[in-house]
Design goal:
- With 292 residues, the chain is α/β, with parallel strands linked by helices.
- The protein has 3 domains: 1-67, Arc Repressor Mutant, subunit A (Orthogonal Bundle); 74-132, Homeodomain-like (Arc Repressor Mutant, subunit A, Orthogonal Bundle), CATH 1.10.10.60; 151-286, no CATH class.
- 37% of the residues lie in helices and 16% in strands.
- The protein has 9 helices and 8 strands.
- The radius of gyration is 31 Å and the shape is elongated.
């Protein structure tokens, strides 16, 4: 018969035990309450100064930790955590790579030890546990949708495809995509006190792509790109693999969408159905002749 594994109390439970002992609770009562031996309660009381010191040094309290193992680089980690809190106060997203790079910076600046510090994934996990840091998705406004319109649209589209006698290689879908090339991550580490994190103003520097392909994926219309510059310097003396247009905001406009349809899409396809999503033009049908 296997031995019953001993129960280990978390630091939070140990702090609770210390508080109750101070308030006058008996060792026997606390041992029964936590289903541990009386010797465990006595050991907690004996080590209470170290327990409270370790808990108070983590900023975030005891959490779910069960050991007293503290950081080998306490000064560096405290500086790192203060920096982390400042970033969160400014609502800047912080991920693991950023934390590790900043840790190496503080280690080289503070010079707490002479040993090398690589800011490994293992160290990062221990740092997060010591300081109660979690990784969550940044809240954003949910996009509105109208599911009640989906079935009528699908029925109408299928009827039109059947009416025209089209195969899957004649059914095209085009979708507009924005690349915010200065956009920060959408997930961030947060302190244990943060229940969620609000969104922040997005960087607006972007280019827009319009991708279009048929249902079987065998024919891809030339990629269409929209920027802010009328004649980008990088395109000078360069045979671009994409079709390009421009607008003041790098966004799609009705004029540009019509230009794309007549000068990019139409010359590359034959009789087809084009379904357009998130775009200035609604769903429409257009019959043309031509070659792939």
């Amino acid at each position: 018969m296997s031995q019953k594994r001993p129960k280990y109390l978390s630091l939070k439970e140990k702090v609770n035990v210390i508080g109750k002992l101070k308030a006058g609770s008996s060792v026997t009562h606390l041992a029964n309450q936590h289903s541990v031996a009386k010797s465990t309660i006595c050991a907690i009381n004996k080590k209470k100064e170290n327990i409270l010191k370790c808990v108070n040094s983590t900023f975030s309290g005891p959490g779910k930790r069960k050991t007293l193992k503290c950081s080998e680089l306490p000064k560096m980690e405290k500086a790192l955590y203060r920096w982390f809190l400042k970033q969160r106060q400014k609502n800047y997203p912080v991920n693991g790579l950023i934390v590790k790079e900043k840790a190496k910076f503080f280690h080289s600046t503070i010079k707490e030890t002479q040993s090398d510090f690589n800011a490994s994934d293992g160290w990062l996990q221990h740092f997060k546990k010591r300081y109660g840091v979690r990784f969550i998705k940044i809240s954003v406004e949910k996009l509105s949708s109208r599911p009640e319109l989906m079935d009528p649209f699908k029925n109408k589209l299928q009827a039109k495809i059947k009416e025209l006698g089209l195969s899957h290689d004649q059914i095209y879908n085009a979708d507009e995509l924005g690349l915010f090339w200065k956009l920060l991550p959408d997930r961030t580490y947060v302190s244990s006190q943060e229940k969620n994190t609000p969104g922040r103003k997005r960087e607006k520097q972007r280019v827009t792509f319009l991708a279009c392909t048929n249902a079987i994926g065998m024919h891809k219309v030339k990629l269409f790109v929209i920027g802010k510059a009328k004649n980008p310097r990088s395109f000078k003396n360069f045979d671009s693999p994409v079709d390009y247009n421009f607008s003041d905001s790098s966004w799609m406009t009705a004029t540009i969408s019509k230009h794309w349809f007549h000068h990019s899409f139409v010359p590359q396809v034959k009789k087809s159905v084009l379904v357009i999503s998130n775009f200035y033009m609604c769903v429409f049908y257009y019959s043309i002749s031509g070659n792939f």
